[in-house]
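sanity check this record:

:::
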Amino acid sequence: MIAQLRGTLLEKHPNQAVVEAGGVGYDVTIPVSTFTHLPDSGAEVKLRIHTHVREDALSLFGFLTQDEKAIFEKLIGVSGIGPTLAVKILSGLAAPDLINAIRRGDSASLVRIPGVGKKTAERMVLELRDKLPAATGEQPPAASPDALSPIDQDVLSALLNLGCARPQAEAAVRKAKAAAANAGANAEFEPLFRRALELVR
């Protein structure tokens, strides 16, 4: 099984990275939290990999930190949560916030994540409250300042990948961008994405 992948980042999207290692391009599904911290295309990248094998497919899921990978693997152990939904959950809440929400039994925060209903949120709390790994505190590497351009397109793409309808997603991105501009904040991907996600709910 592939546990780690180190190579050249060929492409990156809010839910996907293509990494070339040993002359082979690997298509890796990633959460938004990992995308946010990826370097520019052409740079070297190292991803922790979960290899998911089904009868008809072999899929790679990649993470920049051990915390993200550990939580992902706990999530897919919950009945009703497959790898695709687990990636959406990690995209909807940053790993430390997700751990805190589950440990506090905060179902209200969990159901705000697209694709997570009340029963799924309750199962996550019930099955994971005492099983989540302690956070290692490992920080993802900082992205280079220009790595996220064009930012609004990436935010829109991330929202669409989470299952939001395009008209609502576009409106949310515009509102989030306007709010950031009014506050004098730089339009960085993650704050813009989190704000847009709040607005689209």
